[in-house]
Amino acid sequence: MDRTAIGFGEGHTPGAEWFDELRRRRIKGPISTQNRSLSRSLAPETLAVHAGTYEDPITGAVGTPIFQTSTFLLDQASYDAFADGALRDVPIYSRYGNPSQWSVQEKIAALEGAESAVATSSGMAAIAATVYALTNCGSHIVSAYDVYGGTYNLLREDMPSAGRDVTFVDPLDLDAIRAAVRPETQLLLFESLTNPMLKAPDIRGLARIAEEAGALLVIDNTFLTPINVRPLDLGADIVVHSATKYLGGHSDLTAGVATGRRKFVDRIWAQVLRFGGTLDPLVCFLLERGIKTLALRIRVQNENAVALAGYLASSPYVEAVHHPALGGKGHEALRPEDYRGFGGMVGFEVAGGDERALRFMSHLTLPYVATSLGGVESLVSMPANTSHSSLTRRQMSTIGINPGLIRFSVGIENVGDLVEDVQTALKTACEVEDR
Ligand SMILES: *Cc1c(COP(=O)(O)O)cnc(C)c1O
């Protein structure tokens, strides 16, 4: 076996000390010479299809093979990697790395405009590894009081006992965020679009605060995806995703990713290695296949959500609609040129409260009533009895979760069909049944 012939472990010399140097040669990857390494300046539609694909030299397969193996034959490159501490760049054991991971990681890194990415077994695995890897005991983290529930629980339940103090703020209030920063602040963790109120914080502003504080800015870009915004271009240091949502796009897998400069991602990768949240090769394949259509799906979901939000804003059965395209307080600083769109999520309050909202959902014939988001199929749920059910009514109203609030993850169905279904269900729930 000669794996150096197909590019694994290429360039390794025993005793190389590059891994200790900040300006080491290895600034992207891990990647083999078989992976398509495309210019980051290509359009996202092109990168989504082609970036990272493993071109199999033996069969000429057009797609990345599934490297369904837990371990790899040891050869000189593997021993060199052990000696150099370069375990991330040579296939040795799948928890450390696997070519199936490398392909999908390169695709995501290319889309986010990053040097490197690490794929994980869930979004929470990526977020937990990132938070632990980029902070130390005695440090301080600033995040939003309405971050994703799993993230909130991690920050609230696990960080204090791990010696990291956390302050929760309104993500749209830059003054409050600046005021929360302390000398020991190491991490700012925010979402490019929040759940369920769809607040879009000013990423450029957050990046300025992080820089002044000497802290790192982590952006969870799950709701917008790199098709709509690339936080690294706006000054963020790390982007994390629940790839379970839009990146996968078909509600058929659980995965996560952290991406950014290689020196940061290497640290996150080492944490993933220790926590054990590696991504299985079969799921890598599903995720890579899903991302090939990301740009197409997001374009349609952007349009469908705007159309649905527009309809809802005109409905007599709807109290309020939340969607960044409708503008709103706190969004003044956003530059339109930074965003291609605002994704497929719409929040709205059914007039008359939770009971009416429940009835409305039961009358829908197309969308599924389910939690999660980002798939090709529309999903609806109520934050009050799902994602945010552990909050008190007062905590909910602080966040803005009013009675009757529905979270609608718009799919790629025909928007006329969707609007008609919503219209009929609203009318039935709010009029017919009240008679
Ligand atoms: C779903 C979600 C997560 C968690 O991802 P999992 O894949 O379920 O672990 C994190 N952040 C956001 C914004 C999410 O929507």
From TrEMBL:
Its cofactor is pyridoxal 5'-phosphate. It catalyses: L-methionine + H2O = methanethiol + 2-oxobutanoate + NH4(+); L-homocysteine + H2O = 2-oxobutanoate + hydrogen sulfide + NH4(+) + H(+). Pfam families: Cys_Met_Meta_PP (PF01053). GO terms for biological process: transsulfuration. One of its GO terms (cellular component) is cytoplasm. The modification N6-(pyridoxal phosphate)lysine is found at K245. Coiled coil: none annotated. Keywords: Pyridoxal phosphate. PANTHER family: TRANS-SULFURATION ENZYME FAMILY MEMBER. Its EC number is 4.4.1.2. PROSITE patterns: CYS_MET_METAB_PP. It is an enzyme of class 4 (lyase). It comes from the Bacteria. This is homocysteine desulfhydrase. Belongs to the trans-sulfuration enzymes family. GO terms for molecular function: homocysteine desulfhydrase activity; methionine gamma-lyase activity; pyridoxal phosphate binding.
